[in-house]
Amino acid sequence: MIDGTIQRDRPITIPQSRPAKLERDPEQMVVTERGFVCHQPDPSEQVTVSEVMTREVMTLTVDHTVEEALNMLEEFGFNHVPITDARGRMAGIVSDRDLLRSMDFLEQPLSRHMTGRVVVARPSTFLKDAARVLMAEKISSLPVVGPDLEPVGLATMADVLGYLVSHPAMELWS
After folding, report:
1. Which of 8, 63, 77, 84 is the most exposed place for a label (fewest CB within 10 A)?
2. Host domain of residue 134
3. What are the tens digits of pLDDT across the range 19-74?
């Protein structure tokens, strides 16, 4: 889904988040020298994926082998690696579990072992929306893509939990 539209052989993108509309509530009005101003919503409710994602994301291409992916995961301690096509756009993702199931096929390309329909997020996606998708889809990472579907980061369940631990007053589910 690209901003809400399903496209064949393309990553599935979480629709762009929209901030809640402010309604004029007399109890939330603030009087300034210039007149009345609505009270702004708590910034913690508007945390975006870009604020918690890992920015230095390493990728492999569809032509890399299972063995090369296993070596990368072992060397750097990753659990997921975004897979790109020849143009650098998201083509899939491979997890450590995918690779463990592929141990008998070390010389085969990742294109045969990756998950091709990937749920991705934009940097501007609200963290609460990303967390909901992680839970609903039972996945533990969301590649974050730029305008041309190029990976610009990776947001994991650990990133979300890390944010919650450091911001305990955040009302993520409101």
Report:
1. 8
2. 48-166
3. 444 344 443 333 333 444 444 445 545 889 999 999 989 999 999 999 999 999 99
